[in-house]
Design brief:
CATH class of the largest domain: Mainly Beta
Structural class: alpha+beta
Mean pLDDT: 84
Largest sheet: 6 strands, antiparallel
Helix content: 25-40%
Number of strands: 21
Strand order of the largest sheet: 2-15-19-18-17-16
Number of helices: 7
Amino acid sequence: MAFWKQLVLALLLGLAGIIGWGAFDPAARSRLTAAGVPGALLPEWLFLASADNAAAATPRAEGGRNGAVGGGARTALVVTAPVVMTETADRVSAIGTAEAARTVAVFPRATGMVTEVAFTSGERVEAGATLVRLDDDSEKIALEQAKVALQDADARATRNDRLAETRAISAAERDTARFELSKARLALQEAELNLSRRTVAAPFAGIVGLTSVEVGDMVSTSTEIATVDDRSDIKVEFRVPEAFAARVAVGQPIEVATPSQPGSIFKGKVTAVGSRIEADSRTLVTQATVDNPDDVLRPGMSFAVTLRFPGQQKPAVPATSVQWDRDGSYVWSIDDGKAKRTGIAIIERNADTVLVSGDLRPGDPVVVEGIQSVRAGAPVRMAGEPEQLADKTQDTKP
């Protein structure tokens, strides 16, 4: 058989298949259009039989419900949901890491042997409490010597002052005695300082961490005695996306949750904001402070941080109502009992709803079920709508 004959036969078979499909499937034309077949190649007369077959096959008792009235277009039964207004861009969720309000590693300020460890790891200590004592025999002797030297210098200076008043000694000798007295006082202060440095104290109130120092150990100024954490407040460091950087401010309230305390929400506020956006992550480093009066939070914990902002009101539709084709996303809305294709732009997706922009108003019904049987401009009946209302809508057609 010649090639052109095979081509004509193939086209005829394809046309017959489309006509047969249209005779049994009312959605045939819309599905072909959605698949990219130009509408000009799909004349409506090819698909009129589908509506006639549906009307003939459906008993009149069901005609007022799902069939055609008076041989007209098929009425689709759909389930709708109203458009609602919802806030968008009203919060930021981030993962943060906890730090103590104040934390310090304690080192001795002198070299020596440990003679006493005065704390237990994990206990709370007050500011100035003794943590470790070093051997101080030499420093005590030096302190006593400084006291004796000060007494001698004071007595000499007093005697020379009296002698200088009677001109028994020169003014230079009197001044020398006073200078020696000042030196003795400084020597005493130095001896007291050296003795005080044989005691390692807590710089502020907090919880003492673990230590490896024991009595008899030789320590130096580079030996870490322990860490002290002030956990009365907890600092949480997290990162805010670049889009929200200009909206973060010191004093802004936050909420945090941690896996170690399921079901509990802790409140705090932003206390520090970074000065620049990090180039590698395009985020802004932010710190917040959370009260910890019950001491249930620990440095190093992970936190789910929620930072709220004033949102923008946008229309929200159920996720199941959103459809797509080559022209973009859209929903089927109901206008005067007929289906209307309304184009939308998706702004934000949530668990059950989608925030969109488009020609939608609060309360407008959009189709969420029965979408497959909806056609642009075709009459529809919403679930729960009286049948008489649907019939009246169709009877007004010429």
